[in-house]
Amino acid sequence: MIDKFELTGPRGVKQCIVYEPLLTSLLHFQAILDPKSLPEDLLKGALQQLLLALDYLNSEARVIHTDIQTKNDSIFREWDASDAVDPSPRRVHDDYTIYLSRPFRCKKG
């Protein structure tokens, strides 16, 4: 752990923890591949590990990661472009926006 700190925002105090990166980012790894796409098995494994980490943070550490967005990871570029043309159905509840899930298709290769 590099650091830990608290941030106070409109929804209260948030605990923040900063760790050193363990490996290269998916964006960097994708940039060195030819053609610049992640193999499906690598993408599936990375997403599985991401979901397991988020589940642990939520269920065990009682922490919610609040900055997961497609612009943080280039693997969602095509999905973002599709959403710009044909936005996902959504509903606003209080000050939260709830989006209907969309299919996510990986390209082979």
From TrEMBL:
InterPro entries: Kinase-like_dom_sf, SRPK. The keyword Heme does not apply. Its EC number is 2.7.11.1. GO terms for biological process: regulation of mRNA processing; spliceosomal complex assembly. The keyword Phosphoprotein does not apply. Keywords: ATP-binding, Kinase, Nucleotide-binding, Serine/threonine-protein kinase, Transferase. GO terms for molecular function: ATP binding; protein serine/threonine kinase activity. It catalyses: L-seryl-[protein] + ATP = O-phospho-L-seryl-[protein] + ADP + H(+); L-threonyl-[protein] + ATP = O-phospho-L-threonyl-[protein] + ADP + H(+). GO terms for cellular component: cytoplasm; nucleus. SUPFAM superfamilies: Protein kinase-like (PK-like). PANTHER family: PROTEIN KINASE DOMAIN-CONTAINING PROTEIN-RELATED (PTHR47634:SF9). This is non-specific serine/threonine protein kinase.
